[in-house]
């Protein structure tokens, strides 16, 4: 794996080999207009009354999880096909809940159901569960339906009693929707099971943008530019993606519709525009411009044409990441001699250095959704590793080991991080909990890089 970070490829290499950059690209590299206002705030957290279990996370931080029981979903006929669908939904739901980093899933219902002590709710409560999920797949006149229930324990209060339409060809989708509903009902937070990850893949020869579900399923191509595309970044509403593309032998920014794949250019006066980041209010894009062998940060309206300078330094500034409130920006700069992570106000003032490892290469900063932490990469003897640290400073905590691990991107709930790695030989996309646990591989082969996690879809009404 070559260098992942935009800074590594587009700063230090630019300084030394500006002519070669247009011909070479690393395998593993680091979407509105005025009408797209800042997203609506998340709904107020409900008083669920569910007691969590406390686990330890990185640096001894306390991570609360809820003990949640699942009973295998039933069906209202002896139809074998319905049984298979019920089993498939149950399996995906179990995986979603386990991977959410919010629950301790208890799913051995057969043992709990044969204790012979009291009702089903009582048995699961005695087993330590604080909530119980049940489901029934049934045939209705207008199609298949999953009726799901969620009970709070030990009082047995019904939190969810909802019917979901089931598409026989897309059973994962109904499981994801139910998982997100469970997360919201028990925590008041948006779940991520229905979210997507955009990334770059060379599986068809060129480096195109692809989309997949948060779990690696549902893979589909998004662009067919037949060139080198890189650095995808989502709009706050999750409808569009801005990216950098080497079309017509110049690096330009494009905005692509995440559903249709239709792309439009973001016009600038420069021929070298990289590392875009969409502002939290959806109205601006922050990115790097390389002019006369120097790289600085600029902002531009989504409609384009009038970039405004954000930094002005003889050394390179790139890889920007907005804070969730849009007031600050983290970025990579080698103004101290080697690439390091810095933070500044959104207007370019009050620049301060965040990372201080002597002689280290540190970059690709990404702000956590709660604004408390920044993940970044640091180069060691064997390649890059993903680290995380508090925004106010302190000691970084290393999250990865083995191979080279790059391009971190937070899940919208801040509980997981996706990144690319060559730890298993090829360049692939992985995901882990934000404390480095529960590592999962999402792709296999094709040269995959630059993952970007979408915002979480807003919870909607019943199906």
TrEMBL record:
One of its GO terms (biological process) is protein import. It comes from the Bacteria. It is found in: Periplasm. GO terms for cellular component: periplasmic space. Keywords: Periplasm, Signal. Pfam families: PD40, TolB_N. Its main location: periplasm. InterPro entries: 6-blade_b-propeller_TolB-like, Tol-Pal_TolB, TolB_N, WD40. SUPFAM superfamilies: TolB, N-terminal domain, Tricorn protease N-terminal domain. Residues 306-326, 442-463 are annotated as: Disordered. Residues 58-151 form the TolB N-terminal domain. Belongs to the TolB family. This is Tol-Pal system beta propeller repeat protein TolB. It comes from Handelsmanbacteria sp. (strain RIFCSPLOWO2_12_FULL_64_10). The lineage of its organism: Bacteria, Candidatus Handelsmaniibacteriota.
């Amino acid at each position: 794996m070559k260098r992942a970070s935009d800074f590594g490829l587009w700063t230090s290499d630019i300084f030394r080999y500006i002519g070669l950059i247009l011909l070479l690209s690393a395998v593993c590299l680091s979407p509105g207009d005025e009408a797209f206002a800042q997203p609506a705030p998340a709904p107020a957290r409900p008083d669920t009354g569910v007691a969590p279990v406390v686990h330890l996370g990185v640096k001894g931080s306390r991570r609360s999880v809820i003990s949640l029981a699942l009973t295998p979903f039933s069906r209202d006929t002896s139809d074998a096909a319905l049984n298979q669908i019920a089993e498939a939904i149950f399996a995906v739901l179990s995986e979603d809940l386990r991977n959410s980093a919010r629950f301790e899933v208890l799913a051995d219902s057969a043992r709990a159901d044969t204790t012979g002590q009291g009702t089903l709710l009582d048995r699961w409560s005695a087993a330590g569960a604080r909530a119980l999920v049940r489901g029934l797949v049934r045939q209705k006149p207008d199609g298949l339906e999953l009726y799901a229930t969620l009970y709070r324990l030990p009082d047995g209060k019904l939190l969810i009693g909802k019917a979901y339409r089931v598409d026989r060809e897309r059973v994962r989708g109904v499981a994801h929707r139910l998982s997100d509903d469970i997360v919201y009902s028990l925590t008041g937070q948006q779940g991520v099971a229905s979210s997507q990850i955009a990334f770059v893949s060379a599986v068809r020869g060129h480096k195109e943008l692809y989309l997949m579900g948060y779990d690696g399923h549902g893979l589909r191509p998004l662009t067919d530019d037949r060139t080198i595309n890189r650095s995808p970044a989502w709009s706050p509403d999750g409808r569009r993606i801005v990216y950098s593309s080497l079309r017509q032998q110049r690096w330009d920014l494009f905005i692509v519709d995440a559903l249709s794949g239709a792309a439009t250019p973001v016009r600038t006066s420069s021929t070298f525009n990289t590392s875009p980041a969409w502002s939290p209010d959806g109205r601006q894009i922050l990115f790097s411009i390389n002019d006369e062998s120097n790289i600085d940060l600029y902002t531009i309206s989504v409609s384009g044409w009038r970039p405004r300078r954000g930094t002005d330094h003889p050394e390179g500034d790139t890889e920007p990441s907005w804070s969730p409130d849009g007031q600050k920006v983290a970025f990579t700069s080698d103004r101290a001699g080697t690439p390091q992570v810095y933070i500044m106000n959104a207007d370019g003032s009050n620049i301060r250095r965040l990372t201080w490892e002597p002689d280290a290469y540190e970059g690709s900063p990404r702000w956590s959704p709660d604004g408390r932490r920044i993940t970044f990469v640091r180069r060691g003897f064997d390649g890059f590793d993903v680290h995380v640290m508090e925004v106010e400073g302190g000691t970084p905590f290393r999250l990865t080991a083995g191979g080279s691990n790059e391009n971190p991107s937070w899940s919208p709930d801040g509980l997981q991080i996706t990144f690319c790695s060559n730890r298993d030989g090829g360049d692939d996309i992985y995901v882990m909990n934000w404390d480095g646990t529960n590592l999962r591989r999402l792709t296999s082969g094709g040269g995959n890089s630059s993952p970007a996690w979408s915002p979480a879809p807003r919870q909607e009404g019943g199906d």
